[in-house]
Amino acid sequence: MAPREPILTLVPIADLRPTQMTVGYREVEEKRRRWRQHDSEKKEKFLGSHMIPTLLGPKKRHYLIDHHHLARALQLEGVEAVLVTVVAELHKLDKDAFWTVCDHKSWAHPYDAEGVRQDFKAIPKAVADLADDPFRSLAGELRRAGGFAKDTTPFSEFLWADFLRRTMKAKQVENDFPSALERALQLAKSEDAGYLPGWCGPVTA
């Protein structure tokens, strides 16, 4: 039997519902910068090949379960709609049941910019309303710098962000990002970070 091709739907970014409360604004800006480097043909190809996974939730709204940063970056760059692929159809559930399923499937991350869990009602209803978590930006840059490996654990970079938040000062991240990254690279190799997904182990002589 031939594998089933995913069904793609063009959805306005303004209509996409988040399943998390924050993004790293610095990471969003980095994605915007890379987008602007593409010519028109490459941009079109990029949009055609990047399928954003969603859940079809209550009232048949599309809920993002990945690529929140990309969606926000594209929106800020004037892209109005993106192709999505529906991972699960949950539109027959009421809101409470929907969020319960999301919670158990690790499809939602209702934690604020301080790393504190909130009620699902606190999750923004639009990508444009996602709050900034500077430590999420730091975690993303830390992974790109080789501080830890990409991992399939849901919201793995948020786990790293929370670790960094507990061991570093927010002012350092906001006022001197390069030195914060240098410190994060040291912390990432420590045994204290050994429980985190993608941990690469301590540096040995």
Q: What would your notes on this structure say?
A:
The chain has 205 residues and is α/β, with parallel strands linked by helices. Helices cover 40% and strands 13% of the residues. It contains 8 helices and 6 strands, in the order E-E-H-H-E-E-H-E-H-E-H-H-H-H. The strands form 2 sheets. Strands 1-5-3-4 form a 4-stranded mixed sheet. It has a two-stranded parallel sheet with strand order 2-6. A hairpin with a 5-residue loop joins strand 3 and strand 4 (62-64). Helix 1 packs across helix 3 (68-76) and helix 1 packs across helix 5 (134-144). It starts with 7 loop residues before the first strand and ends in a 17-residue tail after the last helix. 33% of the residues are buried.
Provide a brief overview of the structure:
With 205 residues, the protein is α/β, with parallel strands linked by helices. It is built from 8 helices and 6 strands.
Task: Provide the fold topology.
Elements (H helix, E strand, L loop, with lengths): L7 E5 L9 E2 L1 H13 L2 H10 L2 E5 L5 E3 L3 H9 L4 E9 L5 H10 L26 E2 L1 H11 L11 H12 L2 H6 L1 H12 L17
Parallel strand pairs: 2-6, 3-5
Antiparallel strand pairs: 1-5, 3-4
